[in-house]
Amino acid sequence: MRHSSRGPLPAALAVAGLAVVAFLTLGPRWVIAPLHGAFRRGMDTLFVSAGASMPWDDERLLNAVMFVPLGAAIAALLPRGWWFVGVLAGAGVSTGVEILQAGVPGRVPDAADVLWNTIGAGLGAVVVALVRFAAALVRRVLVPASPSR
């Protein structure tokens, strides 16, 4: 297994992803409600301008989108074959958030949020895995194998 140093960017993105998730999921409702409303309006505008209606409740979409960067950043931190840890980490963080929400006034824990958050983390992790797979395939095709001795 070849493991190269990935530098500080994926780690910084993972920390930023965790910070954003913590803020959006554990912040007080009076702070988060305007952001939530802006997201809903943006999604409505996006889908209507594309001539479509929302394929599912945009609350689910919000939960998934929020965890995509986290799953991608965690997958990018790890060696290529370990992308699935981004999915597991997303599920773990989401479960922790839902448990903590029980103690935040105005927040309601919901098991469905864990599912949609995990789907988002999984999407981010899979994108990283696919990009890495494609890059490895291109390298294999473009870089000739070294002759054996």
Question: Which features characterize this protein?
Answer:
single chain; mainly alpha; 0% strand; disordered N terminus
SSE arrangement:
Layout: H1 9-26, H2 29-49, H3 58-77, H4 84-101, H5 111-142
Describe the 3D structure.
This protein has 149 residues and is mainly alpha-helical. It has one domain (9-140). Helix content is 73%, strand content 0%. The chain has helices at residues 9-26, 29-49, 58-77, 84-101, 111-142. Helix 1 runs antiparallel to helix 3, helix 3 crosses helix 4 (84-101) and helix 3 (58-77) crosses helix 5. It is globular. The two termini are 22 Å apart.
The main pleated sheet reads as: none
Tally of strands: 0
Helix content: over 70%
- Assembly state: single chain
In total, how many domains does the architecture comprise?
A: 1
Helix and strand run: HHHHH
**What's the tally of helices?**
5
Structural class by secondary-structure content: mainly alpha
Distance separating the two termini = 22 Å
Mean pLDDT: 85
Approximately how much beta-strand content do the residues carry?
Answer: under 5%
Instruction: Give the overall form.
Output: globular
Rg computed from alpha carbons, rounded to a whole number of angstroms:
19 Å
Any low-confidence stretches, pLDDT <50, length ≥5?
1-5
Question: Would you kindly provide a brief summary of this structure?
Answer:
This protein is mainly alpha-helical and 149 residues long. It has helices at residues 9-26, 29-49, 58-77, 84-101, 111-142. It starts with 8 loop residues before the first helix and ends in a 7-residue tail after the last helix.
